[in-house]
Specification:
mainly beta; four-stranded antiparallel β-sheet; 11 strands; globular
Length: about 110
Amino acid sequence: QVQLQESGGGLMQTGGSLRLSCAASGSIFSINTMGWYRQAPGKEREFVASITNGGRLLFADSVRGRTIISKDNKNNILRLEMHDLRPEDSAVYYCAAGEQPFSWGQGTQVTVSS
């Protein structure tokens, strides 16, 4: 089972941008769908964005239009870019493998200061 490790979190400013990476321990080429989720304190984990090998993109309403997700099958990396950050984007961000995720990373904390 592929192991996932997120990086790129930290303290960010309102209106700024985040760039997260998720490195896989093995090939992600055969994993058709990968995605990003996030969990804010006291809230349930929520879907952020996903991508398939066929290029199908899905976004949560709250991030659509300011978010880019990309899947680098050559280097086994999933990336997330989010712009125009808001305090409500603060959360632990997780990458996940599978449409019904079967593998999760440990998460990276993103804090957006107001």
